[in-house]
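Module 6 notes. Inverse folding takes a fixed backbone as the condition and produces residue identities as the prediction. Think of it as a translation problem where the source language is geometry and the target language is the twenty amino acids. Below is one complete input and output pair. Work through it position by position during the lab.
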């Protein structure tokens, strides 16, 4: 029996779609696989944006990873990227994120695209605000051809509203969910960025960290997070807590992807001049991708921080997994220096005793008021007005028992005075006597710790870290291994993290997502 022309055409279209699906697999897609699909003609940037928008529509109602989408702007940017690729001559080297969608954390300004996205830090007080321009890192992403898809959810005010508020919660997006174990914490505050990457809603996300906000959620959601040296990436156009500690970094599913993105966003920015000028000295000639070395562990000295860090129950899965990983590191040529101890770690981990809290409260008010003053339009122009908004709009008070104590404490500060200067001196001393001394005395290339256990140790000095998936606990919750080092040690950390990742290949996609597709 002869088939009708219409039916033949339909079957041909279905066959073509099936062939494309075989050629390109969206789940666990990497920057390199996406670029390969672009080059082979199996995928366009517009098609990729549409695939991710469909996936977000299916998954986000359960996961609460996305705050706002710029669909029109993203599709227009994708069309431009496709046009650039069509016009490029054979052998032309296009920027690595070219045509690839990105979600940025909801404290990062994105003014371009179809219309300026709100950067609300999860708060209803900033709904309707519009930035005058892109954040420094967003400028660099767009320059590299990346497609800004929208903003990712977070813990409100980067987890600096009040103690005790659940990680990943904000009044704008609700409660972010861990895609592996929905009842488990997604950790904070870059929770939406991490959830979206983990659940394959997008290949590339951008987060920020003051003290643990990239490292912790990356660990709990089985993705790779890079916390760069403070100043390596610009904080201009970003709502931050502490200029001393805040940094902007990539969150992806592989070390390679995160390094591609890191390379695109580092560099001097006159709007964040002092920090980026100092850190620019650390950017290696030739970029960071040259350090994606599968043999990168060989000859590296890694210090294992045991006391105050490895607190697993005897016989636990985590203990066994880390023992296996240390054996792997040794087989790969890494030199392990075991049982190292950081002095005064109990003080470092106590934000009040270390002086970190006092400094953060003062810096937050200064940084926030400066950011608000630069907005093109905003319903609020100061921390004081935000506090008033919260008082007048009880809908914001979804969890009244927690209130807004950090905001109130920050409002009564008055710049960097004697208390804050004393805190800075104490933090500097803790850094010199702590990480810097142990690295120098033991001639280490990096320290090793489980998950985000070293977050405060690394935060107070603006030091870099890379977290890599390490395993899954008996209840299915992921955990990570962290490699940290001194300022500017990203090349060594990349070599170590990439070599470890390729030797172990721990990450697997969550299955929770399939119940909501």
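Target side of the pair, the amino acids:
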């Amino acid at each position: 029996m002869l088939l009708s022309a219409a039916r033949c055409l339909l079957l041909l279209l279905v066959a073509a779609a099936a062939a494309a699906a075989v050629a390109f697999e969206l789940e666990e897609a990497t920057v390199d696989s996406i670029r390969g699909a672009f080059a082979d003609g199996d995928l366009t940037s517009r098609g990729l944006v549409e695939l991710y928008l469909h996936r977000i529509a299916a998954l986000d109602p359960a996961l609460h990873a996305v705050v706002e989408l710029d669909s029109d702007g993203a599709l227009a940017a994708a069309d431009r990227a496709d046009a650039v690729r069509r016009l490029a001559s054979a052998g032309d080297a296009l920027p690595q994120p070219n045509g690839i969608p990105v979600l940025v954390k909801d404290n990062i300004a994105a003014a371009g695209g179809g219309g300026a996205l709100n950067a609300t830090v999860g708060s209803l007080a900033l709904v309707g605000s519009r930035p005058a321009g892109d954040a420094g890192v967003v400028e660099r992403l767009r320059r590299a051809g990346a497609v800004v898809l929208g903003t990712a959810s977070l813990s409100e005010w980067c987890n600096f509203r009040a103690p005790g508020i659940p990680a990943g919660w904000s009044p704008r997006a609700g409660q972010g969910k861990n895609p592996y174990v929905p009842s488990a914490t997604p950790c904070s505050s870059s929770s939406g960025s991490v959830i979206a990457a983990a659940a394959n809603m997008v290949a590339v996300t951008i987060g920020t960290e003051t003290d643990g906000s990239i490292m912790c959620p990356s660990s709990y959601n089985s993705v790779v997070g890079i916390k760069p040296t403070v100043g390596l990436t610009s904080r201009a156009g970003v709502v931050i807590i502490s200029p001393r500690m805040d940094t902007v970094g990539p969150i992806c599913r592989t070390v390679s992807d995160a390094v591609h993105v890191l390379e695109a966003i580092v560099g001097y920015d006159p709007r964040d001049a002092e920090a980026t000028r100092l850190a620019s000295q650390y950017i290696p000639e030739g970029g960071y991708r040259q350090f994606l070395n599968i043999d990168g562990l060989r000859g590296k000295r890694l210090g294992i921080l045991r006391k105050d860090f490895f607190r697993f129950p005897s016989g636990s899965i985590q203990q066994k997994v880390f023992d296996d990983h240390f054996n792997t590191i040794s087989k790969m040529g890494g030199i392990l220096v075991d049982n190292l101890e950081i002095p005064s770690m109990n003080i470092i981990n106590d934000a009040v005793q270390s002086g970190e809290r006092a400094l953060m409260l003062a810096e937050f008010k200064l940084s926030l008021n400066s950011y608000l003053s630069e907005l093109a339009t905003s319903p609020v122009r100061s921390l004081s007005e935000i506090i008033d908004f919260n008082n007048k709009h009880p809908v914001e008070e979804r969890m009244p028992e927690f209130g807004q104590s950090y905001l109130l404490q920050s409002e009564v500060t008055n710049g960097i005075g004697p208390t804050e200067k004393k805190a800075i001196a104490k933090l500097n001393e803790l850094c010199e006597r702590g990480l810097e001394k142990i690295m120098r005395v033991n001639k280490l290339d990096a320290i090793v710790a489980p998950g985000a256990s070293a977050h405060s140790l690394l935060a107070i000095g603006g030091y870099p870290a890379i977290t890599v998936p390490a395993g899954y606990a008996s209840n299915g919750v992921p955990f990570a291994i962290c490699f940290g080092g001194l300022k500017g040690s990203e090349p060594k950390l990349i070599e170590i993290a990439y070599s470890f990742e390729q030797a172990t290949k721990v990450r697997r996609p969550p299955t929770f997502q399939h119940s909501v597709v």
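Reference fact for the lab report: Residues 1-22, 513-517 have pLDDT under 50 and may be disordered.
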